[in-house]
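Private note to self, pasted from the team thread so I don't lose it. Backbone tokens:
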């Protein structure tokens, strides 16, 4: 069976109708020298017809591969060869968007299960659920920089956008340092996007969109199901992966949550960040149950080494960030990658109230951390770490402004 069979219905390409705004811009796309038209980037990029912003709808997700495998008897499904099929499916489904990412091995030294359950479509993409509109690309603003974007620029519109959120932290610049590592965990990151004129290869403000560089494996744990482990050292601030899956409205998530609660296993991750508080309660959720990548196997820890960070690329709507995982400290070879499902700071005792107040799954937590709270709840992305950092910066600022040398 050709592997393309499994991907065949994935091409839901919307032909976005040209808005009045875009049509009027189109007329200005060409200037000319004598009778020869000159196409300018400034005009070109504003014509939506020139971009192939592909949209993926959850209704187009395919389950052919796992239906096929699950139709066989257990002896076939539990054959050790299935491991290679699983690893191959990962490579196959990410070849287009993550071609340089290191191979992900599936390892089980605990029991005979060769792979995690065949219950999801492996993907790095976001699949829009029912009632979710595609991003309004007419609103996407790109910068006019040439070559690399400069973190000291006074004109880069992506930097200006980033500054709106990073200014509080008294550390001007992009969300990433020159090595592409996240500078302040929890602060939303605004990467350069498809409408920017900077150089895709050179610009340092493009990290998540370049894909995974770190080496990880999916390994069975003794009492938490499957987990994700570092195959090589991972430096603090390194991008780990995108929490991909179905992008849903919160009401659909509530409905699914009831079902998942029965099984004691959930892959629902709320889009719940401090900068979205003005919009009220959680509006969107990513569900990695039916579609997702290795990040769906990251387990909860009360002393985590990773964190979910909001990241914007080709998305003008502030309520719809991507959920990007980053290492929050240096991670050694063989160490399990985990984040705190509640997004809470493990050093903050007040977080216990929230933990007890939640209505979602409460499993016994097997994270093994010295400061383990004993309970593991549903996934959420709250950001107390960023707030603590902000308070810390304010205190330094206050101290500096009050300090009068003798
Ligand atoms: C997002 S999944 C993580 C991957 C999961 N271990 C698997 O095998 O598919 C979340 C589920 O993993 C389990 N889990 C995650 N962290 C845990 C922990 N620290 N202790 C116990 N169970 C955990 C819970 O069943 C939880 O609902």
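Design output:
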């Amino acid at each position: 069976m050709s592997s393309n069979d499994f991907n065949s219905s994935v091409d839901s390409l919307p032909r976005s109708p040209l808005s009045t705004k875009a049509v009027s811009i189109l007329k200005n796309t060409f200037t000319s020298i004598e009778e020869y038209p000159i196409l300018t980037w400034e005009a070109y990029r504003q014509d939506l017809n020139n971009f192939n912003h592909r949209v993926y709808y959850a209704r187009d997700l395919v389950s052919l591969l796992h239906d096929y495998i699950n139709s066989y008897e257990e002896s076939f499904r539990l054959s050790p060869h299935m491991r290679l099929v699983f690893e191959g499916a990962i490579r196959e489904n990410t070849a287009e968007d993550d071609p340089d990412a290191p191979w992900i091995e599936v390892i089980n030294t605990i029991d005979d299960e060769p792979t995690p359950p065949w219950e999801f479509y492996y993907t790095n993409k976001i699949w829009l659920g029912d009632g979710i509109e595609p991003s309004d690309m007419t609103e996407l603003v790109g910068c006019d920089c040439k070559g690399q974007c400069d973190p000291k620029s006074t004109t880069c519109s992506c930097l200006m956008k980033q500054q709106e959120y990073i200014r509080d932290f008294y550390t001007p610049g992009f969300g990433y340092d020159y090595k592409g590592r996240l500078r302040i965990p929890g602060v939303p990151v605004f990467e350069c996007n498809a409408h920017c004129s900077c150089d895709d290869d050179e610009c340092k403000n493009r990290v998540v969109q370049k894909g995974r560089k770190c080496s990880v494996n999916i390994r069975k744990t003794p009492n938490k199901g499957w987990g994700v482990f570092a195959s090589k050292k991972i430096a603090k601030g390194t991008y780990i992966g995108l929490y991909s899956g179905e992008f849903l409205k919160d009401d659909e998530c509530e409905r699914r949550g009831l079902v998942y609660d029965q099984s004691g296993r959930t892959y629902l991750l709320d889009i719940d960040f401090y900068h979205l508080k003005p919009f009220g309660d959680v509006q969107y959720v990513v569900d990695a149950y039916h579609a997702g990548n290795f990040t769906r196997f990251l387990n909860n820890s009360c002393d985590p080494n990773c964190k979910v960070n909001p990241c914007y690329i080709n998305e003008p709507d502030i309520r719809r960030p991507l959920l990007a995982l980053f290492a929050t400290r240096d991670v050694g070879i063989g160490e399990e990658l985990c984040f705190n499902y509640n997004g809470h700071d493990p050093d903050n005792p007040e977080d216990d109230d929230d933990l007890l107040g939640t209505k979602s799954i409460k499993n016994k937590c097997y994270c093994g951390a010295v400061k383990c709270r004993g309970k593991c709840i549903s996934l959420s992305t709250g950001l107390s770490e960023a707030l603590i950092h902000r308070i810390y910066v304010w205190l330094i600022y206050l101290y500096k402004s009050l300090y009068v040398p003798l």
